[in-house]
From TrEMBL, chain A:
Pfam families, alphabetized: ABC_tran
Identification of the protein by name: ABC transporter
Places the protein is found: Cell membrane
Topology of the protein relative to the lipid bilayer: Peripheral membrane protein
Transcription recorded as keyword: no
InterPro entries from the UniProt entry: AAA+_ATPase (IPR003593), ABC_transporter-like_ATP-bd (IPR003439), ABC_transporter-like_CS (IPR017871), ABC_transporter_ATP-binding (IPR050763), P-loop_NTPase (IPR027417)
Keywords attached to this entry: Antibiotic resistance, ATP-binding, Nucleotide-binding, Transport
Automatic annotation (TrEMBL), chain B:
Membrane topology, record value: Multi-pass membrane protein
Domain ABC-2 type transporter transmembrane, chain residue ranges per copy: 58-219
Protein's cellular compartments: Membrane
Membrane spanning residue stretches: 33-52, 64-90, 111-138, 144-169, 181-206, 226-246
Segments forming a coiled coil: none
The protein's name: Transport permease protein
Phylogenetic lineage: Bacteria, Bacillati, Actinomycetota, Actinomycetes, Micromonosporales
Length: 278, 252
């Protein structure tokens, strides 16, 4: 059974449809990324699957239950890293982690979780004194403290510096290696490419492409662009398979120091997908 | 499945979850201790002002016997209703409640924990104010202390329910304004500094503060039992608003 099974999901806010019939399957143990620009419907979709929002239409099953009606027992099996939690709580980092840990039967030790997200030095600071990036890391700590089977990460690394982002990626890989299913939303392509087993691109409430980072949007099948210099003149050719062309080039006395073979990057594909006909 | 990260889900026992949440509510309250002390300023001023000087006309000869129980009732409303509504309204807008909503804490669990924590705080405040009352000459009876406590628990539940309901349906700024306005209206019409408007039994049902104050006067100042209509009134308020809060309460 899949961790997440969604068919024809729909949601409108005041007459504007923001989720327009989404199908989604996430297998157990998989890291799945939902990629898309702001306003594409990523957060709404995630919140419906977390049980925080009602859907207007479609079927949804998360860990075998309907998120709209599932109770606290089900909630204890999922972990949620919120996108916009911005509480000004007077609790310290350690108090908050310990407190939330108290809701689960077998939580990770608070100190261990705080160390994992790199907040040990801040563990006795009040939450209101944290920077934006530090708050996000606390959110991550609170999302994983209960050892969830399924973890929702809604734009988890917004506001992280590059080093914190790398640390976070390591943490996600470690969680995935232990069998945690992860649904990640992000608008960082690099992040989706590095972390996700599979990803879907969401634009305007619809899934416009789905695949692995290597094959998304027919990336592997796209023509390669071969460039080189011939007597100082830049030459470029588009070919499906560059092998033949390269063999020919090597046999000639063309200057191959400047040779490049490129396929569209994930970013090229992504921009094309979300740009539509623009 | 082994190692530090192996998923091991499920939910901690209800009692652990609730006591953890109550402890957090109390820690948070202690952290804003200055606000709690300030909130006792108005009741204390009323106690000393109306209790010891003749600024207002109160029924009967014993001013303290009228004023002190009224002040105790006022404090219950101030903490369980006004303070609770304002705090919860802002917690919601800051995302504190959303974060709790992401955890296995249930909605009714949060409402219960908030009410229980507020009840704990109220007990401390009432003890402090009663001691001030005794120090200036109030002579309470203890024969009816249990009914007095019982009616206070009902009043706390009713106020707390109304507070959480307001905080769920209004924006935090509006909640603050509404809670403060209701507090001031009740202070004026609730029979604390002078007699409440005489509306008969009907009055106990529309003015819960006046009903609670009267119940405390009957028991603590006069050593008599609480009229059935007051029990009914506060029980009704408690059932209606706790149910409404449980239904309408929103995490965000």
């Amino acid at each position: 059974m899949n961790a997440i099974d969604v068919r024809g999901l729909r949601k409108s806010y005041r007459g504007t449809e923001v989720v327009r019939g989404i199908d989604l399957e996430v297998a157990r143990g998989e890291v799945f990324a939902l990629l898309g620009p702001n306003g594409a419907g990523k957060t709404t979709t995630t919140e419906i699957l977390e049980g925080h929002r009602r859907r207007d239409g479609g079927d949804a099953s998360v860990l075998g239950a309907d998120p709209a009606t599932a109770g606290p027992q089900w909630r204890a099996r999922i972990g949620i890293v919120l996108q916009d939690a911005d509480d000004a709580a007077d609790l310290t980092v350690a108090e908050m982690v310990r407190h939330i840990a108290g809701f689960y039967p077998d939580p990770r030790p608070a100190a261990e979780v705080i160390e994992l997200v790199g907040l040990t030095a801040k563990s006795k600071s009040r939450i209101r004194s944290l920077s934006g990036g530090q708050r996000r890391r606390l959110d991550v700590a609170l999302g994983i403290v209960g050892r969830p089977e399924l973890l929702f990460l809604d734009e988890p690394t917004t506001g992280f510096d590059p080093q914190a982002r790398r640390q976070f990626w390591d943490l996600i890989r470690e969680l995935a290696a232990e069998g945690t299913t992860i649904l990640l939303t992000t608008h960082y392509l690099e992040e989706a490419a590095v972390l996700a087993d599979r990803l879907a691109v969401l634009a305007d409430g619809r899934i416009v492409a789905e695949g692995t980072p290597a094959t998304l949007g027919g990336r592997a099948a796209e023509a390669a662009k071969v460039s080189w210099r011939d007597n100082g003149v830049l030459r470029t050719e588009q070919v499906d398979d560059p092998t033949e062309l390269l063999r020919k080039l090597v046999a000639t006395d063309a200057d191959l120091r400047s040779l490049t073979v490129t396929r569209p990057t994930l970013e090229d594909i992504y921009l094309e997908l979300i740009g539509g006909d623009k | 499945m082994s190692g530090t990260f192996a998923p091991a889900p499920g939910r901690a026992p209800m009692r652990t979850v609730l006591s953890s949440q109550i402890r957090m509510e109390l820690v948070l309250t202690a952290r804003r201790g200055e606000a709690v002390v300030l909130a006792m300023g108005v009741p204390l001023l009323v106690l000393l002002g109306a209790g010891l000087t003749k600024v207002t006309n109160v029924p009967g000869d014993d001013r303290l016997a009228f004023v002190v129980p009224g002040v105790l009732a006022l404090t219950v409303m101030s903490t369980a209703f006004t303070g609770q509504a304002i705090t919860t309204g802002y917690e919601r807008s800051y995302g504190v409640l959303k974060r709790l909503g992401a955890s296995p804490l249930s909605r009714s669990g949060l409402l219960f924990a908030k009410t229980a924590a507020v009840l704990g705080l109220i007990v401390l405040q009432l003890l402090a104010l009663a001691l001030v009352g005794v120090a200036v000459g109030w002579r309470p009876h203890f024969g009816q202390i249990l009914p007095a406590l019982g009616i206070t628990v009902l009043a706390t539940a009713a106020y707390s329910g109304l507070a959480l309901l307001l905080a769920s349906v209004l924006r935090p700024e509006t909640t603050t304004a509404a809670a403060t306005l209701i507090y001031v209206l009740m202070l004026a019409a609730g029979g604390i500094m002078f007699a409440a408007p005489d509306l008969g039994t009907f009055g106990w049902f529309v003015l819960p503060l006046a009903a609670h104050a009267e119940a405390l006067r009957d028991t603590l100042s006069h050593d008599t039992s609480i009229p059935l209509s007051i029990w009914l009134s506060l029980a009704l308020w408690a059932v209606v608003f706790v149910t409404a809060a449980a239904r309408r309460f929103k995490w965000e």
